[in-house]
Amino acid sequence: MSPISIKKHGDVLIVTSNNPPVNALGHAVREGLVAAIAEADGDAGVKAVVILCQGQTFFAGADITEFGKPMQLPMLPTVVDIIENCTKPVVAAIHGTAFGGGLEVALASHYRVAVPSAKLGVPEVKLGLLPGAGGTQRLPRVAGVGKALEMAATGNPIGAKEACAIGLVDRLIEGDLEQHAVAFADEVKAVRPIPKSSERDDKLAEARANPGIFDEFRKANARRFKGFDAPEANVKAIEAAVAKPYAEGVLDERRLFMELMTGSQARAQQYFFFAERKAAKIEGLPEGTQPRDIRRVGVIGAGTMGGGISMNFLGAGIPVTIVEMAKEALDRGTGTMRKNYEASAAKGRMSADQVEGAMALLTPTLKIEDLADCDLIIEAAFENMDVKKEIFGKLDAIAGPGAILASNTSYLNIDEIAASTSRPQDVLGLHFFSPANVMKLLEVVRGAKTAPDVLVTAMQLAKRIKKVAVVAGVCHGFIGNRMLMPRQMEATKLLLEGATPEQIDKVHVEFGMPMGPFQMADLAGVDIGWHRDPGRIENIRDALCAADRWGQKKGAGFYDYDDKRRPTPSPVVAGIIEEFRAREGVEKREISDQEIVERTLYTMVNEGARILEEGMAQRASDIDVVWVYGYGWPVYRGGPMFWADSEGLAKIVEGLERRGFEVAQLLAKKAEAGEKFTR
Ligand code: 3HC
What we know:
Elements (H helix, E strand, L loop, with lengths): L3 E6 L2 E6 L9 H16 L5 E6 L22 H9 L5 E5 L2 E3 L1 H8 L2 E4 L4 E3 L13 H9 L1 H10 L3 E2 H6 L5 E2 L4 H12 L16 H5 L3 H8 L1 H4 L4 H14 L2 H16 L2 H16 L17 E4 L3 H12 L4 E4 L3 H20 L5 H9 L1 E4 L10 E4 L5 H14 L5 E4 L6 H5 L8 E6 L8 E5 L6 H13 L3 E5 L7 H18 L3 H11 L5 H8 L15 H7 L12 E3 L5 E3 L1 H14 L8 H21 L6 H12 L8 H8 L1 H10 L6 H9 L6
Parallel strand pairs: 2-3, 3-4, 4-6, 5-7, 6-9, 10-11, 10-13, 11-12, 13-14, 14-15, 16-17
Antiparallel strand pairs: 1-2, 7-8, 15-16, 18-19
The site of 3-hydroxybutanoyl-coenzyme A has 26 residues, from strand 5, helix 3 and helix 13.
């Protein structure tokens, strides 16, 4: 049965798509749309057409699962042209998300109406693509060049109200969408000529007079787009819309689209789209497991971490009780939260009312007993097992039955923490990444006894606070930090052997990481995990800490920093490295960039393989989600496991062996069998 159905209301043909979950424009939908337009064209009794969708959303785009497979005709560019060339006015009636190909269908329609909550966007760039069904040519003609550039190159959608203000939507519909869309169609059915987006020119005039707009846009976004192919291709396609007639512009669009589609970045980004969604699924839970109700959250610790964690819940409208031991620390913590909100408001991301609304949901207290009415309590105290055990012992006595007790530990054993309570089934790890109100990753650490409904609650809550959650098992450092360890260890050894922090960081940044291992150490604090005894110097890090070089916060770490936090290589650090080199009897030699890649990135893949082997991650793609969202691994390389697959596992194994590393069994086995981790 076709997902497209038609019915008549007077002389308006209503074309309805029912293709759950998101009305993706798969083959059957495209075929159905073409047939429906043919019906409208051929029926003299039809004077106008309304296209709308059932379910949660208007067409959310092309069907991504069809990418990489032989395309079945009709292709989407043909479908949208058929819609635009319909001899009766077509009205797109939008709710939910008109994304990608969905917005292209709407742009090819002659009119667009939308409910106020609808979102319109072309997120193709996030899949390493550009709108390939005329979107790069029609969007600037309808929404204006500046807006089209922003929407296409960033992939961020706009709301229906804004869309209406700029002319992308013709009317906002309050009330029943179908009914009002039909009424709208009735109003416009006699209007001639039928307005076609591809024939419009008015909104291109400004950019034609000022072609510098494109380079200005490139310059303003250079940092954001660094390393990615797709944003530039989007800009070029819109440039073509301005510089050339429509018929030529679409050819440029097609060529650029195909170049992207066959490139490695699009493959990686499309892989990652599904990886992110798979991460939300937990294997082996009893079917129908229901989440627990979370009405109030407690947070222990009002430091950077506790404050950031609290802000996530406040932002989602969930009340938070935050506990500190001293009044001063509590005031400082809540003060910082307010300042962060006010900074967001100053940037226009929040209104003053929203700031007050969020802060009103916060209850600061010095009494841990005040957590008694919380349904979830997250401990974000000092990273020390004894401290955590004491807190969890107290929570066991205070928290109501069924309350979930979570630790934000980055490394410590959740099972040991759970054992300090009488309810290990209610305990799990919720590992947020700093800054916790910004970073999207949440590692959900599943203890040996964590109950299924506790896990389900955590995953659902993560979605509510707009985090991407990945389930990890109990092991030192879980997924992300565990893989960081071999990288950090090798990076430090490389210093002794002759590489500089600058060289190692440069290799990582050129690879696409936001920063290298030493820039990261300086940002996070070189003193993290330091034993705090300046007299005990066992490694380069100890020496740096003893010399008061704790990183950016002290103006000195692996680099020297000026008052604007700009780094320069440090002669002091070079001296310390030299000293250690002599002390350890290591001979200095030339280190190639390739050696840095093999020793710091291949070793991460090796650790990832061990994590999989031990069942500490459910799937290789979960590891990739951790690295993209937790550490800024470039999404156009998919993540460490996808990247390893792309490089070839045999090559990774050869490199590891040549450098004297023990290869993880799973990695060796897969390389031998010619298999991949992620495909
Ligand atoms: N194709 C195929 N499947 C899709 C899809 C698409 N375009 N969009 C979403 N899905 C699937 C998801 O994989 C998921 O499947 P699962 O349940 O098996 O895991 C299911 O639909 C629900 O998706 P979400 O979990 O993401 O649901 P949400 O409600 O959180 O979000 C959404 C809905 C905002 C529509 C979000 O899914 C989304 O952003 N989708 C992608 C939109 C997009 O990128 N469109 C452009 C496609 S490329 C294109 O159009 C090319 C054209 O220009 C030629």
